[in-house]
Design a protein that fits this description.
Blueprint: H1 10-34, H2 41-68
Helix pairs in contact: 1-2
Length: about 70
């Protein structure tokens, strides 16, 4: 038998996802700043691309969070 659909903590889970994604962005930016002389242009570009995707994900999380409130 399938579990009932419990969405009571969705807003909290979305907030946690937003928080974790922001932390990942900050950690990547810190890494880029600290190792700017050591990393290749390709690695830097890849990490910047990941952060751009994370920013878009946060926008989606925020929209979803508004729907859950």
């Amino acid at each position: 038998m399938a579990k009932p659909d419990d969405r009571s903590d969705n807003a909290e889970k979305i907030q946690n996802s937003i928080h974790n994604t922001r932390e990942n962005i900050q950690e990547t930016n810190d890494y880029l700043d600290e190792h700017a002389d050591e990393i290749s242009g390709q690695e830097q570009s890849s990490l910047e691309h990941k952060n751009a995707k994370r920013e878009r994900a946060i926008e989606g999380f925020e929209e979803e969070y508004q729907d859950e409130k």
